[in-house]
Specification:
single chain, Glutaredoxin, globular, Thioredoxin-like_sf, cytoplasm, redox-active center
Length: 102
């Protein structure tokens, strides 16, 4: 859990992902299209990826990926992020975290 918190606070937007996950790809794409350059951690390519995946599940992220952190705080998975995008509050969160300026 400490490792997750440390990694999540390294950049304004951090996404824990798996390279083979289609929803992870969609969420990464969403952030890129917003002009955000998130830190991406592909758990299937990390040496301690399985350990991090279990920690994410303990945080309440089920499925474990994609897990999105904005401003060091856990936001949720694909469903939550898409809801925030559709209702317009994702942009404000990104601006508040310093991930985007416009």
């Amino acid at each position: 859990m400490d490792r997750i918190a440390k990694l999540a606070s390294q950049k304004a937007v951090v996404i824990f992902s798996k390279s083979s996950c289609c929803m992870c790809h969609a969420i990464k794409r969403l952030f890129y299209e917003q002009g955000v350059s998130p830190m991406i951690l592909e758990l299937d390519e990390e040496s301690r990826g399985q350990e991090m995946e279990w920690a994410l599940m303990r945080l309440g992220c089920n499925p474990s990926v994609p897990a999105v952190f904005i401003g060091g705080k856990f936001v949720g998975s694909a469903n939550t992020v898409m809801t925030l995008h559709v209702n317009g509050s994702l942009k404000k969160m990104l601006k508040d975290a310093g991930a985007m300026w416009l």
